[in-house]
Amino acid sequence: MEEHQKTAEEDRVGKGGKLAYGMGAVAENAMQNGISVMANPFFNVALNVAPSLLGIAVMLFRIWDAITDPIMGWISDRTQSRFGRRRPYIVCGAIAGGVLFALMWWCPRGMGTTFYFTWYMVVSILFYTAFTVFGVPYVALGYELSPDYHERTRIMSFRTWFQSIAGFCIQWLFWLTQRDCFDDTVDGMRWVGIGFGALMIIMGITPGIFLKERRLTSAELDANHSKKGLRSVLSVFKVKPFVYLLGALVTAVAGMFLVIIFGFYINVYYIFGGDMKAASTVLGAGGTVYHVICMASIPLIAWTSTRLGKKAALQIFLFLAILGNAVKWWVFTPGNPWLQLIATVLIAPGLSAVWTLLASMTADVTDLDELENGTRREGAFGAFYGWTMKLGFAICFFVAGLILEWTGFDAALGGAQSPDTLKSMLWLYAVVPVVGLAGTMLCVWRFPITENVAREVRKKLDARNS
Length: 466
Hints:
Elements: H1 15-46, H2 51-78, H3 87-104, H4 113-143, H5 149-171, H6 173-177, H7 185-210, H8 218-226, H9 231-234, H10 240-257, H11 262-271, H12 276-308, H13 310-326, H14 328-331, H15 341-373, H16 378-406, H17 419-446, H18 451-465
Helix pairs in contact: 1-3, 1-4, 1-5, 1-7, 2-4, 2-16, 3-4, 3-7, 4-16, 5-12, 5-15, 10-15, 10-16, 10-17, 11-12, 11-17, 12-13, 12-15, 13-15, 13-17, 15-18
């Protein structure tokens, strides 16, 4: 049994600092998921662009991410300015991201599929470049706010809590576009997009304005600048504990997001027979319940992590998520659309634990990396953590579009989809996440950094840097 120690006063981050960092997570989640959630209802259902084409667009701009994220991590780690290594990029990226999100939905009407495909791809590349400029330094800033094992979990708990606020808003975007004050989905998303883009800007610039960064020692600065080129960034893959975390992240993202868009189609076409307005209410309410449960579970996740350790806590909550996905086959039924909330209540704490504890465990890896390699590379670790997540999303949405067409779905049929198509969607929606999250549990079990290991690493670093 490990001995759990209290956090030293000098290692604590005040509530104001945690709040400022958490508010940035609203922009982070909005940039991560806002476009992907609305792309299919807007471009596929409203503008009749094939799901496979949307998937190709996602793959193209995620390839661009593969280039920009590591570069941004390298730049952020090596930047020296009177405003810090991270804050200038956080502010500029948030502003650009909010503007480009609003622009996404203002494509002219009456154009062809090729035009809409090109519009979606080009604006997305610009938007996700802005997200990289904001997101990589933002994540890195969170890793370095405190050196304490448990305080890092508390910081990431604020981040996850505010991510749920953004998720709550995202779940109601489609519902908002269906209000009677708008002519149709296209008109609705144009004006909703402006409001949501403004929210991204306000929340995104907050950590860049109000947080103070940790100043590196002269030895740390010299070490960072002595390793030139992007080869030093790529060497994060030689840090074995980080590879286990990436494995956990990949399997979690693949399991949940490979079929996540099926929830929209199952509700609209299976539960409500093509009635999008009726489905939008259940989808919005389901998203609300999900994020309320996420927020409510975060103190429990932090409490469990403090007493059992991050690994054990994460595995407990992952088991709940596996159970929640397994019951989807029985709780998604046209006779009682609200029964699906049972699955939501079980899944939400598990995914909250994934986002909170994997991020906290990555911060622990940065200390081990400094001890073994002599550099502070929060930016590099944050870049590849975020890049892995975004690439996972890209592959998932690309493959999901192909799977959706494979099931026989045809938007032109409206509510007249074949029973076999709808049953195939539901079966995949239940089984794929179970398999993916089981893989996540295995990767977490192999992760070697416990609380005692983390504290020993910290003691050695403090002794060396003093």
